[in-house]
Amino acid sequence: MSVADSLVSLAADIRACRVCVENTAAGRRLPHRPRPVVVPSATARILIAGQAPGTMVHATGLPFNDASGDCLRAWLGVSRDEFYDPEKFAIVPMGFCFPGQDAKGGDLPPRRECAPAWRSRLLALMPQIELVLAIGLYAHSWHLGPLRRASLTQTVMDWREIHGATSVPKVLPLPHPSWRNSGWIKKNPWFETELLPFLRSEISSRIT
After folding, report:
1. pLDDT above 70 coverage of the chain, percent
2. Global confidence as pTM
3. What is the separation of C-alpha 154 from the centre of its chain, rounded to a whole number of angstroms?
4. What angle in degrees, to the nearest 10, is found between the helix axes of 196-207 and 67-76?
5. Count of alpha carbons within 13 angstroms of residue 31, beta-carbon side
6. pLDDT digits (tens, 9 = 90+) for 88-120
7. Run of H or E including 47
8. Helix (H) or strand (E) holding 170
């Protein structure tokens, strides 16, 4: 079986996954039906590693199909069509299913059982990936390991060192493109003036 065929087969297994409702060892069961959302690719050179689907993504099955996706696409400098082209971007969040909400209405963290069950196997079938956009604390932890700093701010602030310290794939740490982080962006103007131009250059060189 070719790598591409293996990737298609694994993606089908992921979309049929029910571990978060069948396995109680990791804690509370998923409070709704599973709907894994993932866009693997045998050709894309960029991997977007987010957190987990939100309510709108769960409803539509389309990753980043919400206001945070609009913000992320603006950061990357790409159109909606470019973003959803699997020839250009693979999208593999830390948790594939919407994890539910807490008592205050905020999204819960990605399910703990998801990444150990699938992530290493999936990434091993995408050796062509040259750049990982690690979005948020959970993606930072998985993709950066000891390169992750003590806080999200420090991790993203040290993006030059992290990008330089990683080989193939390169990794760029990003905050989550949520409206909740608008205050963080205002407090850290270097994000828009320094990191985003570099990010857009890295993206453009790999999708054109």
Report:
1. 98
2. 0.94
3. 19
4. 80
5. 8
6. 999 999 999 988 877 777 778 898 889 999 999
7. strand 46-49
8. strand 170-174
Phi-psi group of 182: left, alpha or beta (phi > 0 → left; psi -120 to 50 → alpha; rest → beta)? alpha
154: CB partners within 8 A, 6+ apart: none
Rounded to whole angstroms, how far apart are CA atoms 129 and 37? 19
8-state DSSP, 171? E
| Strands of the 131-135 sheet, one edge to the other | 89-91, 46-49, 131-135, 170-174
Query: In the beta sheet, which residues pair with residue 170?
Result: 131
pLDDT in tens, 133-155: 999 999 999 999 999 999 999 99
Q: Which residue has the tokens 């400098």?
A: 77
Query: From the centroid of its chain, how far is CA 45?
Result: 14
| Average pLDDT over every residue of 181-193 | 96
Can you tell me the distance from the alpha carbon of 173 to that of 144, in angstroms, rounded to the nearest whole number? 9
- CB-neighbour burial class of residue 78 (10 A; exposed 0-12, middle 13-18, buried 19+): buried
Taking each helix axis as running N to C, give the angle between helix 114-124 and helix 3-15, from 0 to 180 degrees, rounded to the nearest 10: 160
